[in-house]
């Protein structure tokens, strides 16, 4: 089979095309493109079928697991695919590891080291119990996230653009320092003992629930599965589509009830905004996939992220 690999403008990416045997898969084609171009390893490549000029249709993205024959429309000798370079890629685990490592390491620096001397505070620093608990709570949270990244989540996409590492690290590392600076500050005023206990107690409960939500999400996919989507069920998923985001937001709320800083509340508002956006997309996708037609199950009526509001 002869495969022509062209850019969106029609320029040939692999001179003379690629010759493959009839049983070749899309993965074989990607390997062949890599061999010929050297630069474009498989996860950098996005291969689609050509669309008519001016057509508003979305191009069909070739799945690496499928045979090339599945895309030839009966004519098995020639195929043209459109190539797009997705840019340098990193694995999702690498991305998550680096974004979470920042807050895990940076926060304790503000607690343990005389950072505030550099900001002009010369007096003795008295550490309140709430500041100590906050440091453990914070570190537990990010340690849990790193562990979940490696041992719990079953991602559908193998890689993410390298540029996301810089964007996400900027977000997490900056917020980490911003909150750590105020919670560990020598002039920090603690809330009442009762408020602290309510905040941390509620927060821990939400962190444990968040972990359980991630276990339920994990069980929706088989280890060797194809990364498809299922209807999440059980525990809080019976009432809300993105129960993992709900518990994430509420656990930050618990942290803020206990520590009460403007920085912490700014973070929870920004994070809730981001997660709400994602939750709307995920809810829409599940409703579309499970539309109740042609034997497909119908997605049950559920809140999206923050019952009883949304
Ligand atoms: N503080 C913040 O700013 C913030 C922001 C975002 C996330 N987080 C935390 O980080 C955690 C992970 O975030 P995330 O955005 O990666 O979570 P997510 O996409 O909702 O889910 C985690 C894993 O479960 C899979 N999954 C989700 N829905 C599924 C379904 N219906 N069927 C099968 N698998 C499904 C996802 O697959 P895919 O690989 O296909 O997506 C992903 O691997 C969150 O739960 C939250 O605790 C915090």
TrEMBL record:
GO molecular function, one term: oxidoreductase activity, acting on the CH-CH group of donors
Domain (3-oxo-5-alpha-steroid 4-dehydrogenase C-terminal) ranges: 159-309
Recorded GO CC terms: endoplasmic reticulum membrane
Bilayer topology term: Multi-pass membrane protein
Superkingdom, natural source: Eukaryota
Membrane-spanning ranges: 95-113, 170-188, 200-217, 262-280
Keywords: Lipid biosynthesis, Lipid metabolism, Membrane, NADP, Oxidoreductase, Transmembrane, Transmembrane helix
Location(s), subcellular: Endoplasmic reticulum membrane
Pfam family, any one: Steroid_dh
InterPro entries for the chain: 3-oxo-5_a-steroid_4-DH_C, SRD5A/TECR, Ubiquitin-like_domsf
Keyword Transmembrane helix appears in the UniProt entry: yes
GO biological process: very long-chain fatty acid biosynthetic process
Keyword NADP: yes
Family label: Belongs to the steroid 5-alpha reductase family.
Protein name: 3-oxo-5-alpha-steroid 4-dehydrogenase C-terminal domain-containing protein
Source organism (scientific name): Acacia crassicarpa (northern wattle)
């Amino acid at each position: 089979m002869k495969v022509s690999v062209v850019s969106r403008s029609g320029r040939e990416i692999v001179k003379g095309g690629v010759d493959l045997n009839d049983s070749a898969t899309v993965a074989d084609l990607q390997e062949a493109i890599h061999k010929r171009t050297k630069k474009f390893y498989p996860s950098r490549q996005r291969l689609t079928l050509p669309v008519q000029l001016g057509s508003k249709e979305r191009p069909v993205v070739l799945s690496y697991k499928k045979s090339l024959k599945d895309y030839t429309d009966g004519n098995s000798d020639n195929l043209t695919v459109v190539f797009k370079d997705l840019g340098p890629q990193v694995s999702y685990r690498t991305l998550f590891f680096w974004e979470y490592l920042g807050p895990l390491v940076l926060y304790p620096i503000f607690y343990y080291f005389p950072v505030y001397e550099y900001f002009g505070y010369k007096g003795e620093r008295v550490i309140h119990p709430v500041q100590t608990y906050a440091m453990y709570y914070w570190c537990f949270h990010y340690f849990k996230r790193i562990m979940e990244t490696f041992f719990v989540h079953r991602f559908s996409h193998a890689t993410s653009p390298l540029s996301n590492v810089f964007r996400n690290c900027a977000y997490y590392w900056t917020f980490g320092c911003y909150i750590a600076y105020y919670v560990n500050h020598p002039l920090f005023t603690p809330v009442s003992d009762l408020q602290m206990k309510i905040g941390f107690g509620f927060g821990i409960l939400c962190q444990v629930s968040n972990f359980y939500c991630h276990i339920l999400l994990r069980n929706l996919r088989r280890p060797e599965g194809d990364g498809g989507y299922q209807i999440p069920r059980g525990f809080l998923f019976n009432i809300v589509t993105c129960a993992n985001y709900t518990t994430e937001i509420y656990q930050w709320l618990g942290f803020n009830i206990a520590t009460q800083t403007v920085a912490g509340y700014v973070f929870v508002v920004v994070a809730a905004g981001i997660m709400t956006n994602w939750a709307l997309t995920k809810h829409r996708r599940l409703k579309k996939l499970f539309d109740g037609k042609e034997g497909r199950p119908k997605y049950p009526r559920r809140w999206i992220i923050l019952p009883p509001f949304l």
